[in-house]
Design goal:
Length: 257
């Protein structure tokens, strides 16, 4: 598929109430149609809560819900959730295809300023998902600050960032999303939440869909609960990479995972 229709659901989240959040997104997803990818924010079942490490919906419940909507919308549904595992809790980006195939990426960089590293286990594996002819790299919030981890090894076309990124650092969020697109010659989509959380942090959203040259294709109004939509072109991406092949001069490196 040379085009990819993507939607980002920039929404407020109910604090530590998984079923309430699923019910809220039910209404939004029921209205979605004709999309290939639909993305929800980071920790969309709880908000960015350290308490969620031991008190969140089980993965089976979240995945089943996502699978139902993936089937209904005929789209890849993605978002991160606090998930308990035998080895400890993780901040897990789940991407679920119609018919139920599940892809899993655990957040690599844990936000120490909120002590996330004391409640969650860091992921060790980078993931690229192939979907409808597109190669997609999922990342979570604080990962955005670490460009080596999202470095394009000529293995992805679209990077997805889900977040609970607070308003005081909104400029960082917007700038880094554009930088990741430009330096990696790839589309970038960042889905952030809005509203306030149980710790009193404010979120302005500023969700964005950006093309490989840094042009903003869609952006959420600050503070507004909105659905962003854009249509991405694989042909245009390939033509740009061929016309301006900066990727050919990239330094080689290896990164232990």
């Amino acid at each position: 598929m040379s085009t990819l229709k993507i939607s980002l659901l920039q929404q407020s989240l109910a604090w530590m109430d998984g079923e309430a959040n699923l019910a809220h997104f039910d209404g939004l997803l029921a209205a979605a149609s004709g999309r290939d990818v639909i993305i929800l924010p980071e920790m969309f079942t709880t908000g960015f809560a350290m308490e969620a490490a031991g008190n969140a919906l089980p993965q089976s419940r979240v995945v089943e819900w996502m699978r139902q909507w993936a089937d209904t919308a005929d789209a890849l549904i993605g978002g991160s959730a606090a998930i308990g595992t035998p080895d400890g809790a993780v901040n897990r980006f789940l991407l679920v295809e119609p018919q139920g195939r599940v892809h899993v990426y655990d957040k690599r960089h844990l936000f120490r300023m909120a002590n996330e590293h004391q409640y969650y286990q860091a992921g060790q594996r980078r993931l690229v998902v192939e979907w409808r002819g597109w190669r997609i790299l999922p990342q979570v919030c604080y990962d955005l600050r670490f460009p080596l981890w999202s470095r394009n090894r000529q293995d992805y076309d679209l990077a997805l960032f889900v977040a609970n990124w607070p308003t005081p650092r909104a400029y960082h969020w917007q700038t880094l999303l554009a930088a990741r697109a430009i330096e990696n010659q790839a589309y970038v989509a960042g889905c952030n939440r809005v509203g306030s959380d149980g710790n009193g942090h404010q979120y302005s959203g500023d969700s964005m869909i950006i093309d490989p040259q840094g042009k903003v294709l869609a952006q959420g109004a600050p503070g507004a609960a909105v659905c962003l939509e854009a249509e991405l072109s694989l042909d245009a991406l390939r033509q740009y990479r061929e016309a301006f092949p900066a990727w050919m001069d990239a330094d080689t490196f290896s990164l232990g995972e």
